[in-house]
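mind reviewing these tokens:
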Amino acid sequence: MTIDEVKAAARKACFAARAGAFAAGQGQAAEILADYLSAHRGKPLAGYMAMRTEIDPMSAMAAHQGAVGVPVIMAKDTPLKFREWSPGCALVEGTFKAMVPAEGAWIEPEVVIVPLVGFDARGFRLGYGGGFYDRTLALLRSRRPTLAVGFAFAAQELPEVPTDEYDQKLDAIVTETGLRLF
């Protein structure tokens, strides 16, 4: 099997695990995330607008003391840009039906809450396959230290995420069962 085939099989298993965990609720995950992020108050933060069965970081984003942005896909095979978001701001449907702010300043985050399909104990994440976050983290980290915080259900953990040379590691993972640093 190629690395792409291995990743596709892992995604399928993780989507099923995530759907089951989503149905059970996210417990205290957002509170754990907000507590961890409080040490980074004042730094520009990027979050995401949860879709389908993704764990929802919105309350942690709203609690952040500093600029908060959400990802906007500009084009295929390019890094993400982040448009400033605040609770209640006007949203429009973006690429892949993700909601994005209708207007606002662009921010460059120093802390990124990263959505994912799966993760492992080494700090690697399995994304959706477009490479957007790997490209984005590589670009941001080439400019300054950038903290990547995975946010997921504990059920999304894999024994080992299949990786290649483009995969960016997480610095931490927050789940409903707690925080792990890598």
